[in-house]
Design a protein that fits this description.
The protein has 187 residues and is of the alpha/beta class. The protein is 58% helix and 16% strand. Helix 2 packs across helix 3. The longest helix is centred in the C-terminal third of the chain and has 24 residues.
Amino acid sequence: MQKVICLYGRPASGKTTQAEKFVQEFGWQQFGMGDRLRAEINSGSELGQQIKKYVEQGILITDEIMERVIKNTKINPQTPGIIFDGFPRILSQAKMLEKIIAESEFEFVGFFYLKVEVETALKRIAIRSAVTNRSDDTNQAAVQNRLDIFAEESVPLLEFYKNKNSLKEIDGEKSIEEVYSEIKKYL
């Protein structure tokens, strides 16, 4: 049975870094919503053009579009697990994922909240934008909007997983290795 974990947190909280470590060490399949959305945009498809409008404004993509992106993703049945990087982000997406898991042979391990302060997120975004030149990191208004949306949407989502005893809070301010060790304890 494939395991499923979700990594959640503010922008630049370390979700992708941690997901990549699971891929390297255990061979898990990474589902990075941000990467999937950027790949769709870069493809120039109709779906990508729709997504681009949302990303450029720093607003959340609709559930309908998210579902299309998920359904376009091929899950490798040979991997020991799937790690959702930055998904779900809102309550309706959590319920969508819960339904997908219930209809499959997946075992849900938990929803890992990598907790970092706003100041830390802003510093990390600045460093990342200097290295990667991602347009969604260089537009200050879009960055601030992403942080504001996170603050608003995180409360019901965290409550949802807390009520299901699936919420695992991890101090994302710690080193990459310390955060990774904390997550691995739950496997």
